[in-house]
Amino acid sequence: MEIKVLYEDENILVVDKPSGIIVFPENNIENKALIDKLLERYPALKNVGAPPRYGIIHRLDKDTSGILLVAKNNETQAFIQGQFKQGKVIKKYLALVVGNIKESQGQIKTLIGRALKDRIKQQVYLTHQPSSENKRRAETNYKVIERFKDYTLLETVPKTGRKHQIRTHLAYLNHPIAGDKLYGFKSQPCPKGLKRQFLHASYLKASFPRGDTKEFTSSLPNDLKLVLENLKLII
């Protein structure tokens, strides 16, 4: 699997992550990870951060594609992680959801934490719930890009960085991401040709240690483009 580099300088790598590969191994899982492939190409990343993530600044789920930042030195890693914590990094994702979202745009503000009945999943908690203690604030904005029969294409902007945040929030709206086997509902429809969750990190804007601000974009992968083309044929 070839890893496409969108941008590179002495401090940062911007990678266009393909779907179907984990970013770095977790929980003693030995699957081949994106960081393994990057270390083959950039051995000096072993000097950045700590294993298993080394210079990787943030994560994308295995079946989510798109923009991923990788720091080439500890100073850059610390600086950009600080930007993430302060909410100064802007990220946008394209998501195809099941059903027709009535509003043209909206905002989801809840608490998110590990699900009580399934430790693999996250779930939404509301502030008045007894089980909401120590759960973390999560906020996602969205707007409709295009409507199809039985599906809606959204641009989503997470304002916080919780695990599975977009997937959890859209399922909470009763519009789970198409193809999402973890957060999708039983017997929910799946578009023709879709083999994974339809979620793509398409845009990122961040400031860097030298004081410059950069924007990066990633086109929708061919497998997801084909899904949309098939939907356009359905009247």
Could you walk me through the main structural features you see in this protein, from its secondary elements to its overall organization?
The chain has 235 residues and is α+β, with helices and mostly antiparallel strands. It has one domain: Pseudouridine synthase. It is 17% helix and 32% strand. Strands 1, 2, 3, 4, 5, 6, 7, 8, 9 and 10 form a 10-stranded mixed sheet that branches. The N and C termini lie far apart (37 Å). The model has no long low-confidence stretch (mean pLDDT 93).
Keywords:
10-stranded mixed beta sheet, 17% helix, alpha+beta, Pseudouridine synthase, 235 residues
**Tally of domains:** 1
Which sheet architecture does the biggest sheet show? 10 strands, mixed
**Radius of gyration, in angstroms, nearest whole number:** 18 Å
Inertia-based shape = globular
Could you spell the SSE succession in H and E letters?
Answer: EEHEHEEEEEHEEH
Helical content band:
10-25%
Structure summary, number of beta strands = 10
CATH H-level superfamily: Pseudouridine synthase
Briefly note the CATH topology name: Pseudouridine synthase
Note the gap between the termini. Answer: 37 Å
Instruction: Please mark out the parts with pLDDT under 50 across 5 or more consecutive residues, or reply none.
Output: none
Measured by DSSP, the beta-strand proportion falls in 25-35%
The CATH architecture assignment turns out to be 2-Layer Sandwich
What's the CATH class, please? Alpha Beta
